[in-house]
Amino acid sequence: MRYATLASGSGGNATLVEHDGHALLIDCGPSARTIAARSAALDFEVERIDAVLITHEHDDHVGGAAALSRRHDLPVYLSGGTARAAAARLDGRARLHPLTPERAFRVGPFDIVPVIVPHDAREPCQFVIAAGGRRLGILTDLGQPTAHVEQHYRALDALVLEFNHEPDLLAQSAYPRSLRARIGGHYGHLSNAQASALLGRLEPSSLVSFTAAHLSEKTNTPAHVAACLARCLPPDVPRHIAQQDAPSPWFEIEP
Ligand SMILES: [Zn+2]
Ligand SMILES: [Zn+2]
């Protein structure tokens, strides 16, 4: 199995996961055109995607899904709450497959567990994906770590984890007070300190690949995140900080 982020941040999120000639796209915030261009930069054709999985209805996760689904006749898997909340963007234009949170399902060679998370959306889920004896966790848009989340994301082979904001930068930002409260609240996004503490509890020594994701461009910097990772990730774990405007390389998740 291997993965690559195509875009990551409040301007749009999408992650490709590939195994044995099959592929999933986790979230589709960017336009179908951007998805195609960034996939091509990774030498990957969008036609090879089997399905799109949507974590929740926020525009940075669902914005391009309807167009991509229609253009390539792709099924879109999402919770019932997400489907209802995103109905205006998806209705009649995407081939929807309802999923049940916490109930594992299969697409091609991928065994997928949708994990319920606290976030200010209708029925948000994040995903743990297994294939070829390896497990990849994708975990962004998390208001706070929970025991439930820790149980699902422990001792993975690869992890994409939100490092959204640095509290000092958030406090100094030009965001309105209500938005600052939302981002830093229990149903918003993980701060660098929250993500670091969570990562430390997830047995990170098992990881062969780690990606810090969904960084805020206004209230975080790659330097802040790199400093956190130097403290909370074992030195031999390969690490990457995902970008908003460029795809990552492919990361192999092999023994
Ligand atoms: Zn988001
Ligand atoms: Zn969100």
What does the model show?
The protein is an alpha/beta fold and 255 residues long. It has a single domain, classed as Ribonuclease Z/Hydroxyacylglutathione hydrolase-like (Metallo-beta-lactamase, Chain A, 4-Layer Sandwich), CATH 3.60.15. The chain has ten helices and 14 strands. The strands form two sheets. The chain has a seven-stranded mixed beta sheet with strand order 6-5-4-3-2-1-14. The chain is globular and about 45 Å long. The structure holds zinc ion (2 copies). Residues 13, 58, 60-61, 140-141, 214 line the site of one zinc ion.
What would a concise description of this structure say?
With 255 residues, the chain is an alpha/beta fold. Helix content is 29%, strand content 27%.
| Class computed from helices, strands and strand pairing | alpha/beta
How many runs of DSSP E, i.e. beta strands? 14
Highest-level CATH class: Alpha Beta
**Basic shape:** globular
Going across the biggest sheet, name each strand in turn: 6-5-4-3-2-1-14
Main beta sheet: strand number and arrangement? 7 strands, mixed
> Into which percent range does the helicity of residues fall?
25-40%
Overall number of structural domains: 1
The CATH architecture: 4-Layer Sandwich
How many whole angstroms does the radius of gyration measure?
17 Å
The average pLDDT value, as a whole number, equals 96
Name the bound molecules.
zinc ion
User: Spans with pLDDT under 50 lasting ≥5 residues?
Assistant: none
User: For the terminal residues, how far apart are their CA atoms?
Assistant: 10 Å
Series of secondary-structure elements, N-terminal to C-terminal = EEEHEHHEHHEEEEEHEHHHEHEE
Report the portion of residues in β strands: 25-35%
Number of helical runs? 10
Instruction: Please name the CATH topology.
Output: Metallo-beta-lactamase, Chain A
User: CATH homologous superfamily, by name?
Assistant: Ribonuclease Z/Hydroxyacylglutathione hydrolase-like
